[in-house]
Amino acid sequence: MKLRTKLMIMLSLVAIYSSITVWGLVVVIDNNRAFVPPYGKSIIIAILITIILLITVLVANYFSKSLSNPIKDIRTITHKIASNEFDITLNIKGDDEVEDLAKDIEHMSRKLKKSYDRLKSESDMKNQFINIVAHELRSPIQPILSYIGLIKDGLVEKEEAFKIIDSEGHRLQKLANDILDSARIESDTFDYHMQKIKINDKIHKVSDSLRPTLNKDVELELKLEDNVQIIADPDRLYQMFANILSNAIKFTKKGKIKIKTHLLPQDIEIEVSDTGGGIPQGLIPRLFEKFATRTVGAEQSHGTGLGLFISKAIVAAHKGNISVYNNDQGGATFTIVLPIAN
Ligand SMILES: Nc1ncnc2c1ncn2[C@@H]1O[C@H](COP(=O)(O)OP(=O)(O)OP(=O)(O)O)[C@@H](O)[C@H]1O
Ligand SMILES: [Mg+2]
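Above: the input record for the complex with magnesium ion. Below: its predicted structure, written as tokens.
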């Protein structure tokens, strides 16, 4: 075998071997030309340098792309975040700083989403508050002003006008008090003056004061356990019962409202049930939250939706519990459980 052929075979084997293991550069040159005078070597060196440069450019291009593509993806995502699109996933793998950066951006986006949702719901609630309060403020002011005008012009019986002005004035006062109470509950400054009281006294007092507001086809029935004492703030307890009972009265056009107490080993259970329309299903999950009320602007307004929020806070401050369900045969039942005094 000629030396040239031997050399060719050997170089081919080296080329195959290096392509299997690591990449390498194999230059096959003619045996005769390998030993030519020095000017021949210069050409070979020039070719080698060109090839090395070419490879360097290709490798640099490859690395710059592998770095710039994820950065482009990250930029696209940051633009999305800037326009409040937080549900993003960056599929960047690489076990390097770029992947760490992508993970940090995903984490930051999740945190931003939480803060954004919280701020949005707070802002929605404030808007809802402004709508409801504006509506509830306007409703009593309008009849008050109208009746004052009618009295001035002598177009209405004073007695009738004063009755309306008085009731609308009280409605305004209740609104102001409820807003203030809710703010105090939220800032933990709603104070209580606890003392031992007979629970039946409170229930009778609330019932007597609200009985005149019952619709004419509605009966109010009381079935109370005797001599039960609890530790409570009498005014706050009155406020809570008054809201539960006035709701029952407001939503019951005919039938019966029953207040029943039942003694448990450590507690007293008070049930207020009515035969009204029941609580709208959609409202039940957030019934004890602020502004849980029927839509403002519906043909009839039902209040600010602060009553049950305040009632729940009052019951909780007495270490009790309040719950509600709709009766099978119609209407709603509120159950309040309070610890009895030893
Ligand atoms: N007995 C009930 N029957 C039917 N719906 C009720 C009853 N009690 C409460 N609700 C529903 O729950 C809502 C919230 O009651 P809540 O007492 O908190 O507010 P409100 O009565 O609307 O206003 P206010 O702040 O003046 O009490 C009511 O608007 C009503 O839709
Ligand atoms: Mg109410």
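Notes for the reader.
The longest helix spans residues 97-152.
Residues 1-11, 296-300 have pLDDT under 50 and may be disordered.
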